[in-house]
Amino acid sequence: MRRRIRAGYLVSMVVTLSLLCCVGGAVAFFLQDLSSSVNNAAFGAGCGGKTVNVQMANLPKLSQLSDTQMHNAAIIIGVGQQMKVPARGWVIAIATALQESDLINLPNLGGRNDHDSLGLFQQRPSQGWGTAQQIMDPQYSSTKFYEHLLQVPNWMSRALTDVAQAVQRSAFPDAYAKHEPLATQVVNALTGGGARAAAGSLAQSGCAQPGEIAASGWTAPVVAAIISGFRTPDRPTHDGVDLGASRGTPIRAAAAGVVTLIRCQAYTAAGTWWGCDQDGSPAILGCGWYLEIKHANNVITRYCHQLRQPLVTVGQLVAPGQVIGIVGTTGNSSGPHLHFEVHLNGDRSSAGAIDPVPFMRDKGAPLGNGK
Asked: What's the distance, CA 7 to chain centroid?
């Protein structure tokens, strides 16, 4: 159920979120006078006290959210922090609230109500979520959501829509996935990019570093400089980017997903088999040892030139950051590196390939070595 809240509905409130930033200390994050113009609402965003104005935030659709919606998102994040829920949980919670209520604390809408559903998460008193008065308290409803979330097996490594459905038991189980990008942007805006997690826990020192798992559930497969870009003028058919990691560097799954393909691909220009039990060269054709992972929303990632057969198997569910292989130089390769590709719409062909650099940056998990 969705509706507009009239201007000025929200009373002034203060929400404090303790965040770790570059100086290593706790930084207070405030939302004050939220009934005033959004232009006056500054949100902590980054190190050294830098702020981002929600109205001016250069993020797709983020600027369309009202003071009320951002305020409710801040409460959801704050409760998650107090409960020590990893940042991935904040994204799931906000995506769920976007689907259920547009991040608006909905009261009983009479004939338009879905049964006795109430609040940010449309929780039902008749289903044991609490009394109507309790559910209409965003802190209470957020707490109850997280309590149920933490009971979902392997929730950190599962697709957002599956986890949200396990908590909500919605009649539209696939509806949550489309809110994941905006939910990620909201979390990163309200926490100044500090909504990143290392190995499933909040980063414990300074701002997020390369190689940590972002709140979106994505991470760079290796931390290394980009040595060749996507479809450059001299390599127009280069459907990914080359990350210059050294031989033996662990390769990590960029996000949760299922391994769908493992293959050795290495041929001479004459079409004879070269194989992957030896290093390749620029004269050899193919990806060498490589694998593909299918993620939520029909995104496919590909990891090429591995040293040996990947460390996972087809059909295996992998978690974000899980080691899946080792950097090598098999196939069409002039030296050790990881060739990394991202494909959309389940299209593993060249037509489905996109530039991984902006894609990963938008996920809060930029490629490169951070220098």
From this structure: 32
